[in-house]
Amino acid sequence: MKPQNLTDVSEFLLLGLSDDPDMQPLLFGLFLSMYLVTVLGNLLIILAVSSNSHLHTPMYFFLSNLSLTDVSFSTTTIPKMLVNLQTHSKSITYAGCLTQLTFFSLFAFLESLLLTVMAYDWLVAICHPLHYLVIMNPRFYGLLVLVSFSISLLTSLLHCLMVSQLTFCEDVEVPHFFCELSQLLNLSCSDTFINNILIYFIGAILGGVPLSGIIYSYTQITSSILRVSSSDGKYKAFSTCGSHLSVVCLFYGTGLGVYLSSTVSSSHRKSAVVSVMYTVVTPMLNPFIYSLRNKDIKSTLWRIIIKKA
Predict the structure, then answer these.
(1) Does residue 83 fall inside a structural domain?
(2) What spatial distance separates the first Cα and last Cα of the chain, rounded to whole Å?
(3) Is 4 a domain residue?
(4) How far is 19 from 10, CA to CA, in rounded Å?
(5) Distance (Å, rounded) from C-alpha 118 to C-alpha 141?
(6) How many domains does the chain have?
(7) Residue 5 lies inside a defined structural domain of this protein
(8) Burial of 4 per CB tally in 10 Å (0-12, 13-18, 19+)
(9) Exposed end of the chain (fewer CB within 10 Å): N or C?
């Protein structure tokens, strides 16, 4: 195919999840419902944390930032997909594609780092309870979130810069419902060897290192809990970090599932369907996992509902 410079590329075509016209209204209704549930659920957690002074602690500060990240993560991809489904269009501008790629990477990396920071918070709370308030002071836990955001932003801008240097062939059809980095590299007529190496390197650093940190934190937490003599104390300690562990398993489990499915299956469309799990389903389930297992969140939300009523 004849290459064309990126400045000549005006748009990409997002092929979406299905070409069947009869499926478009069903997909629109399904994803609209899931998006609204995601936004409402996560905003309710943010509202509960901000409205109750007793929840102004490091744990809930991290939780509210995670909820904000989930809302932003979903907003990066779903609204554009809904617009395309409603208008029966598949196009996304070149600038829009780069913007979507940048913000998707930003919030994906940020979610990974926030989950690691939350694991460290549990580590300090359970293994060093007497020093918890000294270690997790407002300045320190605010700095943890700021550093996590800065690392994620710099990495996402690097991804954007990588793609902006590529040239593309005339075929600009992306077999996905959003501008996913690996799919864009597949469409490029440039040599993407360095780009792929950089992707794997960044993935190993910002995926492997946080996951290793989480595993280490829970190893220490488990070791500390097992030293507790009473069974009630052990159960209470395990249950307090159960929500976070569930979210970690959901996020990394679905992400690993997407990676394995793309490796095993040659169908890009199937990989796009599997990626719905971590781009749409996971952000939607997070508020339910935290609120259903958290008495403080539930009681605060009930008080807000009763007051509004």
Answers:
(1) yes
(2) 63
(3) no
(4) 23
(5) 10
(6) 1
(7) no
(8) middle
(9) C
- Report strand pairing: 173-174 vs 91-93: unpaired
Question: Could you list the residue range(s) of the whole structural domain that residue 115 is in?
Answer: 11-308
Render pLDDT for 160-200 as a digit per residue (tens, 0 to 9): 998 888 888 776 888 888 998 888 888 888 888 888 888 88
pLDDT of residue 7: 43
Helices (H), 52-128: 58-87, 94-127
| Whether the Cβ atoms of residue 70 and residue 127 lie closer than 8 Å to each other | no
Cβ(291)–Cβ(297) under 8 Å? yes
Total number of residues shown for the chain: 309
pLDDT for residue 5: 44
Q: What is the pTM of this model?
A: 0.90
Q: What are phi and psi of 171, to 5 degrees?
A: -80, 105
CA 201 to chain centre: 19
- Kindly state whether residue 85 falls inside one of the protein's structural domains: yes
Q: Which residue is listed with tokens 């562990």?
A: 245
- Which of 95, 50, 114 is closest to 283 using CA atoms? 114
CATH number at residue 261: 1.20.1070.10
